[in-house]
Specification:
The protein is α+β, with helices and mostly antiparallel strands and 175 residues long. It has 2 domains: 63 residues, Arc Repressor Mutant, subunit A, CATH 1.10.10; 86 residues, Beta-Lactamase (2-Layer Sandwich). The protein contains 6 helices and 10 strands; from the N terminus they run H-H-H-E-E-E-E-E-H-E-E-E-E-H-H-E. The strands form 2 sheets. It has an 8-stranded antiparallel β-sheet with strand order 1-2-3-5-4-6-7-8. Strands 9-10 form a two-stranded antiparallel ribbon. It is globular, with a radius of gyration of 17 Å.
Length: 175
Amino acid sequence: MTTKILKTPSDSEARIRRVAFRLLLAESEPIAVEQLSAATGIELERLRPLLDELAMAGRIRRDESGRVVGSAGLSIIPDRHEIELDGRRFWTWCAYDILGIFGALGASGRAFSPSPGGPVIELRFARGRPLDNHAVLFRPDEELMTCCENVYEEWWSQQQPLCGPRAGDSMGRPT
C-alpha cells in the first residue's frame, strides 16, 4: 500500500480556508457553500471540488449538510480543545491551534486542553499572550505532515495536549 503525500494547498484553497476561518469567527454558524462562494468570489462549480479536496485532506471540517464548521484549526462545533475568545466559545483541532489562534488574533480568553492522564488544563490569555508560562506542548515532527493524507486525523491528532510544569501535571479546569 502506498501512502499519498499531502500536497500544499493552492492559492484558491488557502483563500477558502482564510475566508472560512473569518466567517466562522464572525458568525459562529456553519457556512453554506453559497455563502462561501460569495465571500471568496469562487464560482460554485469550482468551489465544490476544492471544498471536497480540503475536507479529504483534513484542512476544513464539514457537517452532514456539507456546510463548513471548521477551518484552519478553528471549529464552531465541539472538538478536541475548547477555547473562549473574548467571551465567545469555540474549539480547536489541536493544542498548537490554541496558541496560534490567540496569538494571531491578539485575543483574550481561556483555553481548556485535556492533559495526559489528568484533569483538563486551563490556560488564560491576554491580548494574544499566555498569562501562565508553565504549560508545554509536545508536537510530532513537522515532516509527518508531509506524508499524511488527512492532517486532521493523522497529524493534529498526534500532538500531545498541553501539560503542566512537569509532564502529567495539570492546572485543572474550574467546575
